[in-house]
């Protein structure tokens, strides 16, 4: 009886050890691969307008990592409707620029699409040894860990009342049956957000325009804050509850 139990115990223990070791060994042996040589860096439409509206929040990454041999081409694309300057190059709206890198290096480029005015391109050496692959994977996981992990209001369910207060403050001056905005005497695109039903009806687009594209409130004329965007997005993620 005890014999059997200790044997099962041993087996479970070695299974546990294997469960821990296998991914580590895998991460060391498996070669690093990418879907393509290119890393696309797309400057979205409205970037310049956002900057002019005084928005400091960076939606573009300020650092790009490439890898020699296998992921070493930066493909810049200007989807904005004004020219953007990248390093010594001016990119007209709609233009793309291919920048191949061959050596491990750190390159700072002046970039008008960033609030900081610069972009760092880090080119790492392709890790060919198990130990360096393991190190690379560990560093990448660490970097992917959100810095604001502990103080973010994660997955919190947001009530209608909270969302209502924000929409009243930031949207209804234009999006109402009778907008008070002098610039928009009728609700743009007939989107009225002054009733619970209409808010719910437009929930999907609210998330897109306020959180993903950040193109509403238009040019952020009334100074909507990051926190308000997050809460309003949270209301949509909570299933857009209404009374
Ligand atoms: C100063 C006026 C103004 C304010 C404030 C404003 N909008 Fe708009 N909104 C517009 C205009 C103009 C359009 C039409 C042009 C466009 O789509 O960019 C529009 C269009 C929209 C549309 C419909 C287009 C689509 O993409 O489906 C949605 C949804 C929207 N706004 C949501 C909001 C939300 C949510 C807020 C508040 C956080 C807000 N807007 C604040 C002026 C405003």
How would you portray this structure in words?
- This protein is an alpha/beta fold and 243 residues long.
- It folds into two domains: 38-128, Immunoglobulin-like (Sandwich); 156-237, Orthogonal Bundle (Cytochrome Bc1 Complex, Chain D, domain 2), CATH 1.10.760.
- 36% of the residues lie in helices and 17% in strands.
- It has seven helices and eight strands.
- The strands form three sheets. A three-stranded mixed β-sheet has the order 1-3-6, with no helix packed on it. A three-stranded mixed β-sheet has the order 2-8-7, with no helix packed on it.
- Strand 4 and strand 5 form a beta hairpin.
- The N and C termini lie far apart (62 Å).
- The model has no long low-confidence stretch (mean pLDDT 88).
- Bound molecules: heme C.
- Heme C (HEC) binds next to helix 6.
